[in-house]
Structures are given as structure tokens and as C-alpha cells.
Specification:
Layout: E1 15-18, H1 26-37, E2 43-48, H2 52-63, E3 68-74, E4 77-83
Parallel strand pairs: 1-2
Antiparallel strand pairs: 2-4, 3-4
Length: 89
């Protein structure tokens, strides 16, 4: 397959957003604003704190129509990979 938009956990994100230390719901708002600035189909990696941020932000993004591709548990934070949909959400 020559499709360049494949869902692989090791795919390099097109952009990163470090929101460690950012409270809810500001981290969700910043993530959504960043996604809206990106080209449709691109991948954003967001760094979130454990607890409420990693529990709330992925669910909120999914409800807004953003596909969650991966959530990785790293030391002291989580890396959330979310894609900007090709069609506007």
C-alpha cells in the first residue's frame, strides 16, 4: 500500500505540544487550538500529566471528532497522539 497516512504507534508526530503542568480544561483547549492550526491528516503528540489530564483530554477530543491514535505511559507523564481529521470535525 502506498497510503502515507498509516496508523502505526511508532509514527513520528508532525508536531509536539508539552502541556505538563497545565490544568484542565486549559490543556484540552490548547490541544484543540493547536490541532485546528495543523494541516488535515497530520499527527500531534501531546504530553499530559497523569490523573485528570490523561483521563479527560482524550475523551474530550474523541467527542469532538479527533481520532486518538495512541496513549503511551512514559515516566511521570503520558504521550497522547491525536490526528487532525481530513474533513473538518
Amino acid at each position: 500500500m502506498s497510503d502515507s497516512v498509516t496508523s502505526t504507534p511508532n509514527q513520528t508526530p508532525d508536531a509536539q505540544l508539552d502541556l505538563r503542568g497545565t490544568p484542565c480544561p486549559i490543556n484540552f483547549v490548547r490541544t484543540k487550538l493547536r490541532l485546528e492550526q495543523m494541516t488535515p491528516g497530520t499527527l500531534l503528540e501531546v504530553w499530559l500529566d497523569p490523573g485528570e489530564p490523561i483521563e479527560q483530554v482524550p475523551d474530550s477530543l474523541a467527542m469532538e471528532g479527533y481520532p486518538i491514535e495512541a496513549v503511551e505511559d512514559r515516566t511521570n507523564y503520558f504521550a497522547l497522539r491525536v490526528r487532525r481529521p481530513l474533513a473538518s470535525a
